[in-house]
Design brief:
The chain is α/β, with parallel strands linked by helices and about 325 residues long. It has twelve helices and eleven strands. The strands form three sheets. The protein has a seven-stranded parallel beta sheet, sandwiched between helices. Strands 7-9 form a two-stranded parallel sheet.
Length: about 325
């Protein structure tokens, strides 16, 4: 199969590209010419075809899609402090429309859209599934709202018979290759002694290792039903205290101390910092969105993906953290040498 992957130079996208190549597929990776990802340098060795362009450019997308049997659409404007909402709309919504139009014209056989579990209502629910309705986002608002709109348009294209599309909704994904993610930052800050637990740690988060995630995406492509949504979650929801304990273990720091910053106090401080930094035009050291990520109680069910796709995440917290910490140390070693 000849497969186009957008967002191919990002964390999950590059892992997906490598996985598809290992499975024997011909992969075309969409990349912007300004990108410095290591995947571009490895393209020849991996046998990857590079397609230069940006999802906001319809003509470039038509050229990128030409000859592709399937598309994995992972490209997105991630949440960035202070970024104008129009940027999210342009990339996440308009960019998806461009890919759908190009896919329709080219007669693509399958279009897999990478959405987010954050498009639906979930706080306090440890078994949130695909039946939950779309909901107004309470954090990373512009990102989640535009991802939800793009998801709606992908599903509408599938239901109307215009594009054979389906949706996957990943939970927070971590692993080697992710320099800026939640777990990578947690490990790095614990190593430096600059991380403080917010809240009592009893709330749950749902984390999936990147290797499990890309396998789930491939299974959705191979076996998923057109017009369907699949949540791809981790083995089980885990408490933040379990997360912190596993992180301490892989870093050789023993058991964490039972000290934490009350969530209400952290939100108050973050709100104040956001207002001050908004006036000064700088990025706050901590944001309300970051506090929400650490303190909201949630978990997700991958029962549908399990029964229909055979998706069974295998990498447990401790092993996933161990591999991530090893990668981080190797990166830091190369930089210091």
């Amino acid at each position: 199969m000849r497969v186009l992957v957008t967002g191919a130079t990002g964390f999950m996208g590059s892992a997906l590209v490598r996985f598809l190549v290992e499975q024997g597929h011909q992969v075309r990776a969409l990349a912007r010419r300004s990108c410095t990802s290591s995947l571009i340098g490895e393209a020849g060795k991996l046998g990857i075809e590079l397609a230069w362009g940006d999802v906001v450019d319809l003509e470039a997308m038509q050229a990128a899609v030409d000859g592709a049997d399937s598309i994995f659409h992972l490209a997105a404007q991630r949440d960035v402090w202070g970024l104008d909402e129009a940027n999210y709309e342009r990339v996440n919504v308009q960019g998806t429309r461009h890919l759908l139009e190009a896919a329709r014209s080219a007669g693509v056989r399958c279009f897999v859209y990478c959405s987010s579990v954050g498009v639906a209502r979930y706080p306090g629910n440890l078994q949130a599934d695909e039946s939950l309705p779309y909901a107004e986002a309470s954090s990373q608002v512009a990102y989640h709202c535009t991802k939800a709109q793009a998801e709606r348009e992908v599903l509408a294209a599938a239901w109307q018979g215009n594009v054979p599309a389906l949706v996957v909704r990943p939970v927070i994904t971590y692993g080697p290759g992710d320099r800026t993610g939640m777990i990578t930052q947690l490990l790095a800050r614990l190593e430096r002694g600059t991380f403080f637990l917010v809240g009592n740690g009893h709330n749950h988060v749902d984390l999936a290792y990147v290797g499990d995630m890309v396998k789930g995406m491939a299974l959705a492509w191979e076996q998923g039903r057109i017009g369907q949504v699949y949540i791809l979650s981790g083995p089980r929801p885990v408490t933040m205290w379990e997360v912190l304990t596993a992180a301490h273990a892989v870093l050789g720091k023993g058991s964490p101390r039972r000290l934490y910053v009350p969530a209400s106090l952290a939100r108050l401080a973050a709100g104040g910092l956001e207002r001050v930094c908004g006036i000064l035009g700088s990025k706050p050291p901590v944001t309300l969105d970051a506090i929400a990520t650490l303190t909201v109680d949630r978990g997700f069910s991958h029962a549908r993906a399990s029964s229909e796709l055979g998706y069974h995440p295998e990498v447990e917290l401790l092993e996933g953290f161990r591999q991530t910490a090893t990668w981080l140390r190797e990166c830091d070693g190369r930089q210091s040498s």
